[in-house]
């Protein structure tokens, strides 16, 4: 048995903002993927995944929802026969490792599933997102359902608000000097503690005002610029967003990267932002000159995501 591939995702814009109903833009990232496989002889990593699937099965068995029905007996017998999720997606890195697994389970064990071949109305997207939110809560305690949605559909998703999603197109890549890249912090980030920090900060009126005004405005402007290919304007807005994040989200940025973050803003050579919830994992970078940025960041592992 070998299931279809499900890809990683990158939330280009909107981390934390989407929890509070502002815009977001997520794109599939095909450099990493996962698939359900089965084997009688399991490696240590596969065995760990197999045990995790058993826990996930138990969680789904207790889900009280009219939204979705799983073929749980089949799922259980596949797990007993050595099924595991074979994935190259790094865990705790903000690129949707649990999302790809959720997408694979939904794809394999739901009868009346919504498929990418249908016309994806807003209602269907919202239903899928709700189902995925329920499923992925097993991993994070609270999930928007966006990561699995992106992985399942393998399409860029524009989040206008909680109840308004659309599959969208992004401008095709160019062979220019500019780039979006990932910077590896070489630390694992955990989503739940970061979201707790954010929720506590949201009790502060000044922080709420910053999220609703500066953070939301720059995020929305970045999305608009990116989708319409306004590269010059995009970098101006990403710089402002990078400043806002450095000032207000310090606990989510590993300490070792605070000065590197500031260096980008001071030199205009690159601008950094959170990739997912932060606390480790990948940091997302934007630059108008990837060669120059690579030189300045040569101590770090970078991965190219998109070219301007």
TrEMBL record:
The keyword Transferase applies. The keyword Zinc does not apply. GO terms for molecular function: kinase activity. SUPFAM superfamilies: GHMP Kinase, C-terminal domain, Ribosomal protein S5 domain 2-like. Signal peptide: none annotated. Keywords: Kinase, Transferase. Transmembrane segments: none annotated. It comes from the Bacteria. InterPro entries: GHMP_kinase_C_sf, HddA/FKP, Ribosomal_Su5_D2-typ_SF, Ribsml_uS5_D2-typ_fold_subgr. This is Mevalonate kinase.
């Amino acid at each position: 048995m070998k299931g279809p591939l499900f890809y990683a995702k990158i939330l280009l814009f909107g981390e934390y903002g989407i929890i509070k109903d502002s815009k977001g833009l997520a794109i599939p990232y095909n450099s990493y993927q996962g698939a359900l496989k089965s084997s009688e002889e399991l490696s240590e990593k596969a065995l760990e995944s197999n045990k995790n699937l058993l826990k996930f099965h138990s969680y789904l068995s207790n889900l009280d929802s009219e939204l979705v029905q799983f073929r749980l007996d089949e799922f259980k017998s596949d797990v007993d026969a050595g099924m595991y999720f074979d994935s190259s997606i790094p865990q705790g890195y903000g690129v949707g490792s649990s999302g790809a697994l959720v997408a694979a389970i939904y794809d394999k064990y739901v009868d009346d599933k919504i498929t990418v071949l249908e016309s994806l109305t807003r209602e269907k997207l919202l239903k899928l997102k709700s189902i995925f939110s329920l499923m992925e809560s097993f991993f994070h305690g609270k999930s928007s359902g966006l990561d699995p949605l992106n992985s399942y559909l393998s399409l860029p998703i524009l989040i206008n608000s909680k109840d308004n999603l659309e599959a969208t197109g992004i401008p095709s890549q160019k062979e220019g000097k500019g780039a979006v890249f990932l910077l590896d912090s070489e630390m694992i980030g955990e989503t739940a503690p970061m979201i707790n920090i954010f929720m506590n900060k949201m009790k502060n009126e000044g922080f709420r005002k910053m999220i609703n005004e500066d953070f939301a405005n720059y995020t929305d402007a970045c999305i608009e610029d990116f989708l319409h290919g306004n590269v010059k304007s995009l970098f101006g807005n990403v710089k402002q967003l990078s400043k806002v994040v450095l000032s207000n989200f310090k606990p989510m940025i590993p300490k070792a990267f605070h000065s590197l973050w500031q260096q980008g803003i001071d030199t205009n050579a690159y601008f950094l932002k959170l990739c997912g919830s932060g606390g480790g994992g990948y940091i997302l970078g934007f630059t108008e000159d990837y060669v120059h940025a690579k030189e300045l960041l040569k101590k770090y592992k970078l991965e190219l995501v998109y070219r301007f």
